[in-house]
Amino acid sequence: MSYKNRLVALFGALLVAVAFLTLAASAMNGSGPQTLFTDNITAVGTSLAITPMEQALLDRLNAAVISIDAAIYDFDRISIRDALIAAHNRGVVVRIVTDDEAYTNSSYQLHYAALEAAGIPVINDARPSSIMHNKFFVIDGEIVWTGSANMSNTAFSYNHENGLVLTSTLVADIYTIEFEEMFVDGRFGTAKSDNVTHTVTYNGIPLEIYFSPTDGAMTEVINAVNAATESVEFGIFFYTDDALRDAMLARLQSGVTVSGVWDQLGAANAYSDDEALCAAGANLKIENFGGKVHNKFMIIDGSGSHPVVITGSMNWSTAGGEANDENTIIIHDAMTAQAYVAAFAELYNALGPETLCQTSGEGDVLVYLPLIIKPLPPTATPTPTATPTVPASTATPSPSVTPSATPTSPPGPTGNIVINTIFYDGTGSQEPDEYVEIRNNDTQSVQLNGWTLRDVANHVFTFPSFVMQPGQVCRVYTNQVHPEWCGFNYGSGSPIWNNGGDCADLRNSSNVTVDTYCYP
């Protein structure tokens, strides 16, 4: 063989080897779920510009040819709404389940109404005491999208969120069973059953899938933490589950490093477990970004031989594990873990030392700096091309339905915080699920410490130290604790709000009435 021919043969062999290695690397990199993260650290407000995470979902919705099943909570992202309507119009079967309060919320009802006007069925959970909090899609019986992100402007363009895309008919079948239990059977919350396979293999990777409240999701999260030998890292919105707190405290005591990024709103909750973890030596930072840290992810032993990632829609709270409709996925995969480790590091390193809980260096003295109080930055101005309108075929929606009667008396003095509604006709002899809903209509945050809420019979609830963010909605329950609704609880052993009529009086810390709400 000539020298030239030998070079040609050698070059051809090298090309084959490179091609083989490239294919092998591609197969390895593509074996796990696709991981997606928002990039909103520098965001100064919401935007309608399409984001990479959003585009990943739109690409799959736009490619759907058979079916789209979606479990949605907050919903005002026009691009997602229009993609669902377009899929329906080209013959794809589109089905939606949502939460009753999200469905009637003034910010989201227009968009749900647009789906219905186009002929897309929307089923809500009709449960005022707990929520359908899932955020997942099953597309063509093969693709599953899940994670922490609502289908909202804040989720995609302002908050800090994560998502997963799994292409597997086996995984899709599991999520479809859960979806149809809600959509077809009309069963939500504790009315559902534990009826799915929990442990599956995805391209050789072990996965665990659990749905709240029937599948013991929080127990499985705690079990994973108990198995940690090196590190636990997490980004979380609400974390109030004391059993999970105790599991992490035990890991800290055994020498495991615990690091976390906590949302400012979640950390301000009276039942939040951040102080306990800080006192035990965890490396925690309380975010001071513009948007929320709305993630619910955890990485266990991310650099170890058996790394684990936990994510999904479930906040780490009693409501998340025992009342709400949620989904949790546990992934045993090194490459997925590394993607989440990098995302965690980006959030953690972007926060300065003023957000860190730390000891004073004097042994048992703890200096804890939990919050940096700031007004929410203004909404960013979207580009002119990113202002779509409701499709012409969309019927004008009826006004939002409130759980109780509308006020019949004039409101009290104008203030930043207003009473939205009172849900007075609860269930059970003690009616623990009664609540008063309040909203911050200002562009500034408001400290509620010392504010009071009272009825005509002078049952008084005094607010703890709590910073209510612009646009935030909170509820004061009669005898339930819902961390996702700010955790306010009268703690009353009997009903407060009379079915025949009552008035709520909201006063600031100077005892000046801010708002009054009466129903007949």
What's the gist of this structure?
By secondary structure, the chain is of the alpha+beta class. It contains 13 helices and 27 strands.
Number of helices: 13
Low-confidence segments, ≥5 residues, pLDDT <50? 1-29, 359-414
In which order are the strands of the major sheet placed?
A: 8-9-15-14-13-10-11-12
Percent of residues in helices comes to: 25-40%
Q: Which CATH architecture of the largest domain is right?
A: 2-Layer Sandwich
Radius of gyration: 25 Å
**Biggest sheet: strands, sense, closure?**
8 strands, mixed
Can you characterise this structure?
- With 520 residues, this protein is of the alpha+beta class.
- The chain folds into 2 domains: 32-367, Endonuclease, Chain A (2-Layer Sandwich); 417-519, Lamin Tail domain (Immunoglobulin-like, Sandwich), CATH 2.60.40.
- The protein contains 13 helices and 27 strands.
- It has helices at residues 3-29, 52-63, 78-89, 100-104, 109-117, 153-157, 169-183, 217-226, 242-253, 264-268, 274-279, 318-322, 334-350; strands at 34-37, 67-71, 93-98, 122-124, 136-139, 143-147, 162-167, 199-202, 205-212, 231-236, 257-262, 283-286, 296-300, 308-312, 326-331, 358-359, 366-367, 417-423, 435-440, 446-447, 452-454, 460-462, 467-468, 473-477, 488-489, 502-507, 513-519.
- Helix 2 packs parallel to helix 3 (78-89), helix 3 packs parallel to helix 5 and helix 8 (217-226) packs parallel to helix 9 (242-253).
- The protein is globular.
- Residues 1-29 and 359-414 have low confidence and may be disordered.
